[in-house]
Amino acid sequence: MLIMKPVVAIVGRPNVGKSTLFNRITRSRDALVDDFPGVTRDRHYADTMWNEKEFTLIDTGGFLLSDDDVFATEIRQHVEIAVDEADVVVLVLDGRSGLSPFDTDLADILRRSEKKVFYLINKVENNSQRHAMPEFYSLGVDKFYSVSAEHGIGISDFMDDLANALPHYDPDKDGNNSGGNQEQKEICIAVAGRPNVGKSSLINRLFGEDRLVVSEKAGTTRDAVELVVEHGGCRFRLIDTAGIRRKGKVKEKIEKFSIIKSLKSLDVCDVTLILIDASEGITDQDITIAGYARDRGCGALFLINKWDLLEQDEKDQKKFMNDLRMKAKFLSYAPAMTISALTGLRTHKIFSMVEKIYDEYSYRINTGLLNRIIEDALFRAEPSLHKGKRLKFYYSTQVAVKPPSIVCFVNYPDAVHFSYKRYLLNQIREMAELEYTPINLYFRERTGKIDFSSKTPNTTANIRYARKKERKNVKRQKERTEQQRRKRIREKDAQKY
Predict the structure, then answer these.
(1) What CA–CA distances, in Å, run from 414 to 338, 370, 391, 445, 482?
(2) Among the CATH numbers 3.40.50.300, 3.30.450.20, 3.40.630.30, 2.40.50.200, which is that of 184-361?
(3) Domain spans of the chain, in order of start
(4) Which residue ranges make up the annotated binding site for GTP?
(5) Annotation: binding site
(6) Per-residue confidence (pLDDT) for residue 4, from 0 to 100
(7) pLDDT tens by residue, 225-267
(8) Given phi > 0 = left and psi -120 to 50 = alpha, else beta, which region is 381?
(9) Is the pTM of this model over 0.70?
């Protein structure tokens, strides 16, 4: 039986301090905070603990019964879902602006839900504000908690009572903490792109429900939202990010913070899904975002979204891909797919491709195999001389994964030309079958040459490499034989004349 952690939902009208309270309880800065209303639009989840009691906290958007805001209807739906999921609800009120009709409406809705509700009057930072609290008793509530989420005033007493009200939870019986799931592979995926290219729509499609607020208006997503999906025995952690515009077009402070959080998501992810709007073509900003993924060393997958919107005569996939490869040469290893988040076109292939990228991204090459690959590459094409002296490779080893990072010890590290480095990278990709991952190759100085003559273990990787090398040699021999045959024919034809 699967036992879930207790769930606490924070609700309230816009700009009462819900996200500030969320950050205070979780001891983080995960939720974006600003002075103007409507910053939070999606549901934010975070696991936290108080008095050794674990629970899941949900931050929600500002609740409005009117449709004055373009996102009001969808935010209301997300708030209602959060209340349904919660064991305990925290209604946050504003001690500065006083009671609002929206507070009364929301309190009535929570009463009908029959959930345990804590009423929190936020932004109470001095005694003069406490004297203005009696108006809140018109809600028909016996107990209020006066706090300041920003300064931490009154939070401890409130959290002690909240923790005592949570249902019993035993972590040892939680299916999520069982030994089998601890070994389950987890892949972190960040979805990045320009505003309004369909990032949230894609995550809703992959998640299987309308988990994120979606609109045709650019800039709908402001905060990085994490979701977990299990697919094919693998656990995927999806991060929806805010749209990244050109620096010169970013004016609002909240948008700057959103973009900073988006870029931080690329730092922690294993694979970045780079969304491109097919109806607008490949823009310079798309390539800039691809560059951010390259600079952070994560795996990458290009997704050409809205492919269904193109006219039939415009659906030249080969031409589109060639254009992409020409503009994003620095991500030549990143595969690309045409999809439609709206209709689901080819979206079912995304998880399997991401898993393939991750397997290569976290792959460790056998040291003996790696040295034979380098030795074979040196035999086929020697590096150029450095001041009349030969460049010697002594030893190579992989020092890290995610991405695979390799160090070659040579006598003159600075003398390795970038073109020869690219040649070695291509040889490693081909022989180690690392097609879809970035690879870091470094050169360090060391004395003493490696002895390649020692017998290496008969591992699967070594056998596969030996067979591949043998096939290449056979192919090369056939090509030489064919070239010699054609040369003899040309010589005979020349003798006739």
Answers:
(1) 41, 21, 10, 9, 40
(2) 3.40.50.300
(3) 7-173, 184-361, 367-456
(4) 12-19, 59-63, 122-125, 193-200, 240-244, 305-308
(5) 12-19, 59-63, 122-125, 193-200, 240-244, 305-308
(6) 72
(7) 788 888 888 999 888 887 787 766 666 665 676 777 778 888 8
(8) beta
(9) no
